[in-house]
Write a structure and sequence with these properties.
The chain is of the alpha+beta class and about 140 residues long. About 45% of the residues lie in helices and about 25% in strands. The chain has helices at about 30-35, 60-70, 75-90, 95-120, and strands at about 1-10, 15-20, 40-45, 55-60, 130-135.
Length: about 140
Amino acid sequence: MTERGRIREIKGNNITIVPDLSDACFGCMKMECKTKGGILSAENPKSLNLEIGQTVELKNEDSSYFRQFVIAILPLFFGFILGFFLTRLIFPNLPEEFAAFVGVINLFLTAFIIYILRKKFPAKEHKRYVERILV
């Protein structure tokens, strides 16, 4: 995912950026920007000649996409599988629909547990990098 923003402050390799909120942001529904006052931090690994006031395009760390997938999807998948197969193992004579129902209930239970854990232990801010200068 790429984001746009205007450089507010430069301290060595760390850049403070005010995001361009006019772009549609459906990933977090602008919740991160609202909670942090619209301030983002980024790094300049390409050593671009940056100046305060420039508009830049930011890119997220590539490994953050895989981490988000692992945290968001895999526990739900394993929650369903665990509920389904444990039901089939414990109650082998019950219909398969019942095991699927228990799997779905376990999927929602897993989602609720993840929700509670994320409230207690919020996700760390992912690293952003300045990809290119726009203006």
